[in-house]
Amino acid sequence: MSQKNETPTLILSFLITAGLLLGGFWWLNRSTGLGFGWLKNVGNPVSTASNSPASGAVAATFAEVPKVPTGLLNYGGSTTWAPIRRDVDPIIQTVLPEFRLRYTNPVTGAPGSGSGIRMLLDNQLAFSQSSRPLKATEYEEAKQRGFTLKEIPVALDGIAIAVHPNLTLSGLTLPQLRDIYLSKITNWQQVGGPDLKITPYSRRIEDGGTIEFFAENVLGKAPFGSTVEFIPTTTQALRKVAKNFGGIYYASAPEVVGQCEIKSLPLGRKPNEYIPPYQEPYIPSSECSVNRRNQLNATAFQSGDYPITRRLFVIVKQNGDIDQQAGETYANLLLTNQGQDLIEKAGFVRIR
């Protein structure tokens, strides 16, 4: 056969081979969801160890989570997690009655992320809930005790700023917020508001992970200023703000955004680039009710446009014992489709 006659055959063979290869890529993309996105991370690897479920694939419902331990299991920690303990954990108990969870307060001091991790290190808890990442000192202490700690993120949260509902102010930048809590800005007029003394409220830094997170990420580890008034609980602090025209307080966004007695302020990294922690349009206090409240701006939290966001962690003790199994199971439950739906209903932002 002449070379001229062979040419169409060669072209046809090439097209068939190319079609098979492209078909294989298409099937891989549909089956695994990988597609061609992996090319974007070449030279910029992303660690996924702490973002992955504790064991393998993610289940759809609580009932489908495998290897659930039985018995009474103590857990404790962050007060930010209270809505999850209220709205999610009872449903876990209904579906898995043998996986018995008991929230345990510290014998002395206030409950919080730090005290929960301390109790976990002291073998008082099977696992703990935290609104901040683990510290290097906590990793090291666990190592000295013969085990390791692992943080598994299960939800997104943010820090919202509460002020009096009648305060006229479009928002604050992060530097302005920092300077208010360092007592460098003491009058609302300095940030575009009325001529009125600012009264910053806070819980003490040893009272929880939210305060530790705020001190480290907003204040840059600087100590609170002399004008800051310390209040024991968020409930008490929000009541103070509702009565004090010049008051300001920060807390987990679900604890602030839906409140009718106060107003949550938009925040920005730069002036006039404010992002609200609530969905717009804003519902003023005069129109706010049990059935009509401001809702969390989940889109801005997920995108990172809102400037103060964080992850909520299950802290697992990796000791090869039932404690590790309990912590990993609890994280896996929250990472199911059912768990993420319930976390969203509790006021937080789903992580998957």
TrEMBL record:
The keyword Transmembrane helix applies. The chain crosses the membrane at residues 9-28. The keyword Cell wall biogenesis/degradation does not apply. Residues 73-336 form the PBP domain. Keywords: Membrane, Signal, Transmembrane, Transmembrane helix. Gene3D superfamilies: Periplasmic binding protein-like II. It comes from the Bacteria. This is Phosphate ABC transporter substrate-binding protein.
